[in-house]
Write a structure and sequence with these properties.
Largest sheet of chain A: 5 strands, mixed
CATH architecture of the largest domain in chain A: 2-Layer Sandwich
Strand content of chain A: 25-35%
Order of helices and strands of chain A: HHEEHEEEHHEHEHEEEHEEHE
Oligomer: homodimer
Shape of chain A: elongated
Helix content of chain A: 25-40%
Number of strands of chain A: 13
Radius of gyration of chain A: 22 Å
Number of helices of chain A: 9
Distance between the termini of chain A: 10 Å
Number of domains of chain A: 2
CATH topology of the largest domain in chain A: Alpha-Beta Plaits
Low-confidence stretches of chain A: none
Strand order of the largest sheet of chain A: 6-5-7-4-8
Amino acid sequence: MAVIQYAPDVELIPTKSMRKIITLVEEEKIEQGILPIENSTEGAVTEVMDLLIKTKKSKIQREIILPVRHNLLSTGDDISKLKYILSHPQALEQTREYFIKNYPGIELIPTESTSRACEIVKQKGEEYAAIANEWAAKNNGLKILDKNIQDNFYNQTRFLIIGRNHEKPTGKDKTSIAFSFHNDFPGSLYMVLKEFAEREVNLTRIESRPAKSEMGKYIFYIDFIGHIEDNHVKEILENVEKITNRFKIFGSYPMGKIE
Amino acid sequence: MAVIQYAPDVELIPTKSMRKIITLVEEEKIEQGILPIENSTEGAVTEVMDLLIKTKKSKIQREIILPVRHNLLSTGDDISKLKYILSHPQALEQTREYFIKNYPGIELIPTESTSRACEIVKQKGEEYAAIANEWAAKNNGLKILDKNIQDNFYNQTRFLIIGRNHEKPTGKDKTSIAFSFHNDFPGSLYMVLKEFAEREVNLTRIESRPAKSEMGKYIFYIDFIGHIEDNHVKEILENVEKITNRFKIFGSYPMGKIE
């Protein structure tokens, strides 16, 4: 769904893992890849963060923020006949209040994916419904009995498009970087944040991931407003590079709107 | 194993979830609970972080840092007879290089837990071995064929002991806090870190978790050296409380050594 928002006409190639997506971009076998990077409820997708730090050619070219929308899908169109609701445990969890309030007698059954839930519902008939997105309804020929049944209306997932070229400034851009320090940080992180604060540059995200050597060693990931071609951003990054050990720029890209 | 290090003679009560451990402490049904909070390879245990922010009475009373040690366990004592190695996927992943290097022909089979691997190995005999810790060897009556077979010798897990009382200062203490900001952070996090940096107080950990409202809203978790009864720590915390929205002190506790 994120890709359809971004580029409705591109050819889509499915892969079996996040790692594979990045490998295909790095090996120049695909032009761009799309990866989830964070969810407003679950937090960072740590696997993707750990993969991005190892890339050589990949640049972040776009961010896409998509609200998580759950719908009730079935073969029939009579909600009163429903006895069983199937979906991935996370979707069941995210619609629990809706069912307790509206259909307390209904049985919730976990499946390995939302697609699998749709398949079963298609076979089993009108006592069964799946929780899935609109695309799944269309794809499986199911009817939408109720829309936007998620308990938290702010649940959003942020995706990144990666490719191999730097994006030109648009005037409304974000930049993503990562860095670690030589030693433990007495005031090291403070020194980095000072560079941003003194130039009134807003951070939109800060995360830490273990450096995987020993406890207490971290790699920091920062997203901020601005483009690497902006003069004040150049200044910040030059100074940050001096006070850090590993330092990596993932790229500058247009700020995403919530679709 | 972490509890045995900390208090070898306490009564151990197993629970089915992390949430249950915290509930039992909050309802005063157990004196103390133990929870993993971070691993030097995998990062934060986000479930525990999200549970801790909701506690009312619980205080962190101790930290225990335990190296992750994998051993090769079997009923026999002849490594050359081994054909199959069983363990939890994470343990298999963490010993992969060891097997590629030393026993390239051996088949690695994932099981749902290291305990389950030990049970199967007990039944199947000397062609089978499990990857598990020393305690599992003793508990299952298995022989240790090889010790410390983990690829990464720095892999450590940090555990927290929670209870209901504040711990007195020992002179070598850590304090854990969490906070969020009213608005997005232009320089808010910088302002907080400034309080620590100006008093030369070392941070040992900084993590962010989503506030679960919308993308870009975070709760920050900081661990630092010092005790809440120290005057300079009192000053810092008073100032931090003023510039933050939600503010929570999890407790002060003796710094853990690596066992």
